[in-house]
Each structure stands twice: as C-alpha cells, then as structure tokens.
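Run log, item B.
One chain of 341 residues. Sequence copied directly from the ordering sheet:
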Amino acid sequence: MRVNPRETVTVLAAGLLVWPVLDAPARPKPLEPVRLAVGSRPGNIVYLQIDLALALGYFAEEGLNVSADYFDGGTAAAKALVSRNDDFSANSIDHAITMRASGEQLKMIASFTSLPTVSVVVQRDLRTKIRSIGDLKGKRIGVTAIGAGTHVLTASILKKAGYSLSDVTIVPVGSGDSLIQAMKRRDVDVALSSDPTTTSVLMGGDASLLLDLVTFEETQRIFTGGYQFTGLLTRPEVIDTRGATAQRMVNAIVRTNRFIATHSGAEIAARLPAKIVQDRYIFVKGLQHSRACFPRDSMVTLAGVANNLQSQIAFGSIKPQPLPDPASFFDMRFVLHAPVR
C-alpha cells in the first residue's frame, strides 16, 4: 500500500502533541492543613506518637499537613482545642472529663498510652526520708501543670496513702529540662515525671525512684486494671463535619503505634530528629523503661477510662454521683476502620 507523506507527517505531529500531555507528571494534591495542640514540649514519651508520626511522614502520606503547637502542659493544649484554635489535641483524657462539667464535649479517638506512664521521683537529698507514698504528707510535689494529668494522678496516689491534695503543696514545673532544673534547685521534694525525663533525672543522680507507674504490675499498687492516659482528642463537630480528616489522623497514629510495637528503642530513636532525641542513650533507655505503656492496638478501653474517672473523683473535679458513662468520652470507630498495613 502506498503511504501519503503528508498523512505520515500529520500522524507524527499528532503523536507529538499527545505524548507531552501523557508524560506530564500529575500535580500533587495539596495537603489538607490540620492544627494540632500537644500537651508538652517535643520529646515527651507520652506524646511519642506525634513526634514519630511527623518524622516518619505518616501524616503527609495521609494527605495532611499537620502543624503542631507545643505547650508546657496538657491544660493549655486542651484549652486550645476547646477554643477552636486547633482541630485536634494530644492530651490526657482527663481534659475530656473535666471540661464536660463546663459543657465542652471532647472525645478521644485513639490511644497513646494505656497506663499512667509516669514515675514518682524523690529529690536526692530526701531519699532517706521519703521511702513510701505514706511519707508524702507535707511535701512539695512537682507536676507538669495545674490541672494536668500528673496533677490528677497525684490525687489518686495520695488517696491510696490516706491523704488528699490539701496535705501537700503542688508546684507546676513543666516537663523535660524545666522539671530536672526544679529538682536540682530543690524547688520540689518530689515530682511526677515521664520518660525520657525520668530516666535522665535518675541516671544523673538528681533523684531516686519512689513509684513507677509504667508497668501493669506497678500500676496495680494504685489502681485495679489499666489506666487511660494520653491520646488523640477532638471535638464532636470535627468528627461530624470532618470525619475523613479524623480518619486520616487516626490512620497515622495507628501506623505509628504498630511501628513502636515492632521496632526497638534504638530503631525508633534513629528515625527521630536529633533535637527530639538529644541524649540518644537516655532516650533509648527511656523508651525501654516505658515500653509497656504503648497500646499496639491504639484502643481506649472502658476499664481504663473508668480508672481515670476515679482519679477525677479523688482530684475533686467531678462528683461520684452521678458518675459519667466512661464510654461517652471516647469513639473507637476510626481505629476500627484504620487500614492494616
């Protein structure tokens, strides 16, 4: 068959016009902006999932541009969520419970820690005088912030010894370096700390260990069963109007909890920025110390929330009657629908 040269040129030209369009890279879909309040400065192990999910790129892989606002304590972070400055918060569930009394509705949609995850440490000069929780009466106790989860836990610890918060002086000392400096300056006699601060202050010789609520067995000295502490909180209208966003946030947290469960402390530290890890030896040791607190399944449980409610009663933030329904403070639909990867 004879080919018309003009037709050949036309076909080739048409091909040249088509191929550049087919080869053009697809424009990346813009990431959805999300504001997240965190109830501590970076590096606090009870909010490890946030630091790690950001470092691993899990939020970005879910199509989210998460901007984290870090606070000195959980109270300020919860207020940022309630005031709608932020869409989600990394907080203890305490704030969902206490803010219910003022008409604010918050729900935990994924768990970070299913045990108290704190240790009670004693200032080094007092280690021979404070040898049990019965010796806490009249002492200055450091907590991260007034009304924070560590403050609430203090009430339950004192109640176990037959005391109340009125028997001690509560001093807000923040977390991390500020807590360590408070111990060094002897501003407090005792402090409630979480890793890696706990490991740092103990290994530095500035404190000794009194109570270690990082294992199920030690937690039974104060509670019966688990204890829901930190997790991802949001407002009901976010769940209702931005359910897809909430699902993607939870997807990232679920992936991160699985990463924590399947990787060593050294492997986790290697994926985090140096400014978060700081002293690598201390950070890895801290991860090992508190590993039992991380729930592989990201689930909040009725029993864990019920124990937190008992802490709130001891703290005085809620009354024993009528006791709120523990199930009203969390929503596990997003965890249950998170893809298995």
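Observations after the first pass:
- The domain at 118-219 is CATH 3.40.190.10 (D-Maltodextrin-Binding Protein; domain 2).
- The beta strands are 32-38, 64-70, 88-92, 107-111, 118-123, 140-143, 169-172, 190-193, 207-213, 230-234.
Flagged for discussion on Thursday.
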